[in-house]
């Protein structure tokens, strides 16, 4: 998995220090450092995981206190990681100082200080063993502080790897996070990490003699095992002012070379880089805790998602009811206003209709007079007009009689009426109307004629 952020927590006795590293682009740059005293909570935005963790993955690492951890160095044939882990598992009863059923363990392959110096095809394995109840108590403490660890790591492992080995000898690492007066002694011979043991510096008057006895016993054990081939050179990974410097120099009666330790911030960066590429199964975190943390993460996402959906629904519902109330008031105002205007509107419609009728009557009156004028001006002599009907202001019907020899006069009368103009405008539609109809009247030398004309603008 490619991580975007990596948190490293140092849960000290008096304070907790948290480093957050930006893990993108395979570089681990410190982005934030936080210190919290006992009783203070770590910032949730730094350590907790939310929806954003699905897109920007976050790895939480915690340093396990060194005073509860057992370290063992063993040599195994070169093999694959799976086979190596199986071989360590078979030898775990010999390597572990506590019952296997009560222990959690992991391993780390250590590089050789001088590759090729070891003739046999072996690899050096550092086995880390810790009691299960210690891990569970430590994880319970972290959970109470809101920190759910994805991995448990040992800072001493990175301190060991960061130490530059210059030859055969012993390197002493005073424990700064554990009880005072304890130190780890790492023995390097032939370019190979041969042994790792714990020594104690007492506070009594015989502390120098006691320390010398412990170191001499380690020396004899190395000679018996065959890897200690010369007098060791002593190195202190600490400060020259450290009490361990004078104690080692007096106990072994020889100079002690001081090597500067890796600062805590750089050590956290090394832990983050190593943890980011480590196998998920090679971890001191119990599997059941990892499963429970993952389930809590999923449940928390579902819970927050449902709460967010309910919040959005509630906000939408509130907006709907507010809008409904506002538009209800607006509608009531409009209805009231419309009710107040209804009588005025009805009266206006009636007045408008009456005005339209009056205008139409006036128009029809003048149209009838225009028709009468047109008939009077264009009717030939000899024709008799018996009926003139002005129908709906749209058509003019004429009916009358004429001598039989004046049939053409009736047609001319019809054509003249269609061409008659009033104020320069045609009164009748020249393209419509019935053509003249004539019939001979029995017993008389007369014809009956009739025709209709359509008004142009009506």
Count of DSSP E strands? 19
Estimated radius of gyration: 56 Å
| Shape assignment | rod-shaped
Q: What's the number of domains?
A: 2
Tally of individual helices: 10
Q: What distance separates the N and C termini?
A: 89 Å
Catalogue the unreliable spans. none
Structural class: alpha+beta
Secondary-structure element order, as H and E? EEEHEEHHEEHEHEEEHEHEHHEEHEEEE
How much of the sequence is in beta strands?
Answer: 25-35%
Describe the strand arrangement of the main beta sheet, using strand numbers: 3-2-1-4-8
Oligomer: single chain
Report the sheet with the most strands, covering strand number, pairing sense and barrel closure.
5 strands, mixed
**Mean pLDDT level:** 85
Name the helicity range. 40-55%
